[in-house]
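[recover] target loaded
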């Protein structure tokens, strides 16, 4: 009798239902899908374009230091040349570039159709273009960016922004033209030109720097000091790019651990569902 009851008990042990296994599989699949999507989003290169940002602010009627940030958008080519064209409707008489290690800088000036007055002096020409060309082994490789600083002034008092049409040249002879001005609707154009937003003059006047000769001297002095520190800035930019790459690698590693943990959890849950609820033989 005991043997009969024991055999009956063993045959009556319930097994995991097909529905339960399917639910677990679906949950793990969802977790895995989300993790995989995160990997794709993090690993995919973010498309960016040439931009310009002030160091601090760019006040109307004053002077400012600005950085042209140039990312490399190609996987199989390096950037070797940058041409920044200055707006002719708002000419800038003072433009001083900071030295960038490994890059030759050429400042081009053009005759003005109408002279402008700056600090009581008649200005008949202004900077129309600044060109940076890589020399030797210098270049912006795939996955990196480079900043090109300038000290500029006197900024116009009758404009809210300045548009700098820019050409980016790669070592495979490809030229990308960042020349599209902003649209009225606010939508970003296909190849947007760098745009420098101007802020209101300090105190609501015409800009203290515009009325003070010392401001221009300070800008030139700062540009000279920046030139002496150019090599250090170049190293810092490369280090920032390396740190960014390391951060992405660490993030991808964490996502991989999450996916692995989901697989282990699935195995444990499935194993538990296969174990009988009561494996003690009936006495």
């Amino acid at each position: 009798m005991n043997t009969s009851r024991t055999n009956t008990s063993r045959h009556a042990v319930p097994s995991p239902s097909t529905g339960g296994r399917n639910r677990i599989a679906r949950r793990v699949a969802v977790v895995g899908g989300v993790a995989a999507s995160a990997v794709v989003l993090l690993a995919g290169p973010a498309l960016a374009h040439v931009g310009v940002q002030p160091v601090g602010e760019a006040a109307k009627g004053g002077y400012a230091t600005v950085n042209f940030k140039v990312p490399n958008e190609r996987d199989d080519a390096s950037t070797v040349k940058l041409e920044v064209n200055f707006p002719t409707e708002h000419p800038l008489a003072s433009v001083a570039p900071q030295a960038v290690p490994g890059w030759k800088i050429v400042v081009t000036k053009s005759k003005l159709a109408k002279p402008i007055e700056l600090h009581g002096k008649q200005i008949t020409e202004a900077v129309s273009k600044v060109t940076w060309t890589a020399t030797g082994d210098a270049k912006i490789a795939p996955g990196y960016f480079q900043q090109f600083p300038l000290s500029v002034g006197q900024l116009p008092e009758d404009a809210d922004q300045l548009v700098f049409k820019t050409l980016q040249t790669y070592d495979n002879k490809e030229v990308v033209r960042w020349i599209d001005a902003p649209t009225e609707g606010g939508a970003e154009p296909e190849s947007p030109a760098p745009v420098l937003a101007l802020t209101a003059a300090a105190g609501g006047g015409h800009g203290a720097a515009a009325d003070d000769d010392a401001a221009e001297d300070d800008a030139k002095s700062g540009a000279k000091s920046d030139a002496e520190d150019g090599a250090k800035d170049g190293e810092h930019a490369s280090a920032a790019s390396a740190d960014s790459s390391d951060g992405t690698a660490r993030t991808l590693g964490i996502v991989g651990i999450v996916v692995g943990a989901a697989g282990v959890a699935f195995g444990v849950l499935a194993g538990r569902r296969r174990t009988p609820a009561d494996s003690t033989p009936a006495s």
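[recover] notes: The longest helix spans residues 230-274.
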